């Protein structure tokens, strides 16, 4: 836990669990998740808001956690890839990504999955274009896009 001059206490609900962290005002949500809370499933790639690897859900909306200050998340619900698996069972979107072979190196995958999870909550049976729009902010350097789109559409057909 980061402490020091200027540190501020921030209360969050991370993957359903209430946590309180001490963060410097300039600390990003991404660094807070990865370094303070050891939730390293959320990836840090560009760290400047261009790739989407750091996508998490805040109050249900996908955001770039590298561009979000932790102090602005006071009292909010934060969901990361670690929170999707319940009772040892993969989330339908995780399962769909595996079944569709929707990744290669996997570095973009947690962010892609969180974007698709957010989409499915609003659009339970998405079209290919719905999925493309949902992951438009998630770059995949491996070019797995066709399979990512298939995974998103197939995930809509799965029941939790
Ligand atoms: S690491 Fe946040 S957008 Fe690239
Ligand atoms: S699977 Fe490698 S960047 Fe997307």
Describe the structure.
The protein has 160 residues and is α+β, with helices and mostly antiparallel strands. It folds into 2 domains: 8-81, Ubiquitin-like (UB roll); 92-157, Orthogonal Bundle (DNA polymerase, domain 1), CATH 1.10.150. Helices cover 31% and strands 16% of the residues. It has helices spanning 29-36, 92-99, 109-122, 128-134, 145-157, and strands at 8-14, 17-23, 55-58, 61-64, 77-79. Strands 2-1-5-3-4 form a 5-stranded mixed β-sheet, with helices on both faces. Helix 2 packs across helix 5 and helix 3 packs parallel to helix 5. Bound molecules: FE2/S2 (inorganic) cluster (2 copies). One FE2/S2 (inorganic) cluster binds at residues 44-47, 49-54, 64, 66.
């Amino acid at each position: 836990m980061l402490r020091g001059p200027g540190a501020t206490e921030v209360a969050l609900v991370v993957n359903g669990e209430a946590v309180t962290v001490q963060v410097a005002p300039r600390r990003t949500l991404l660094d807070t998740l990865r370094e303070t809370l050891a939730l390293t499933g959320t990836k840090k790639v560009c760290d400047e808001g261009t790739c989407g690897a750091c996508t998490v859900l805040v109050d249900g909306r996908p955001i770039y956690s590298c561009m979000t200050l932790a102090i602005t998340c006071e009292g909010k619900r934060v969901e990361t890839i670690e929170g999707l698996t319940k009772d040892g069972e993969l989330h339908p979107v995780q399962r769909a990504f595996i079944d569709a072979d929707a990744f290669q190196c996997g570095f973009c995958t947690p962010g892609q999955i969180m974007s698709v999870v957010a989409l499915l909550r609003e659009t339970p049976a998405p079209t290919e274009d719905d999925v493309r729009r949902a992951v438009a902010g998630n770059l995949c350097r491996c070019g797995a896009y066709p399979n990512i789109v298939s995974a998103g559409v197939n995930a809509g057909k799965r029941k939790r």
